[in-house]
Amino acid sequence: MTEKFKILGKYIKDLSSETPNIETFLFVKDNISKYQLNIDITSKALKNKLIEINTTLKFEDKEQNEKKSYYEIVYATIIRVSDEIKEKKDLEKIILCDVPNAIYPDLEKIFLNLIHDSGHPGIKIEKKIDFNKLYNERFN
Questions:
Q1: pLDDT of residue 138
Q2: Alpha carbons 82 and 6: distance in angstroms, whole number
Q3: CA distances from 92 to 43, 89, 98, 131 (A)
Q4: % helix, strand, coil for the chain, step of 5
Q5: Whole-structure pTM over 0.85, yes or no?
Q6: Over 70: is that where the pLDDT of 139 sits?
Q7: pLDDT (tens digit per residue) in 79-96
Q8: Which domains occur in the chain, in start order?
């Protein structure tokens, strides 16, 4: 069996850290444990079996506070899909599971560096994202 896809490139498409003022920074420092990590994956077909996959991580406060910081990264991955992949379901699994699993260590490191460099060095992503589980739950 040959590889289902090949990663041709990956890069930071968009990166954002927003803390409007010192009052917000101090408030967030005390309340950042309430922040939640959200993930979104979108894809766009290009030509010649190429696909651009954008994985977005957002770390934000879901509560209605006036003082909040906002952290987001859009990480783009360009892949070439094998000619053997014909089924839509196989393609979905590559886009929603295989590629995110392959790029996640780099993406997590970049995103944590952003949050740490934004003044919150103690933040960790406690729960590892299980893309296979998320993919399987989507169809149940």
A1: 76
A2: 8
A3: 10, 5, 9, 12
A4: 35, 35, 30
A5: yes
A6: no
A7: 999 999 989 999 999 999
A8: 5-138 (3.10.420.10)
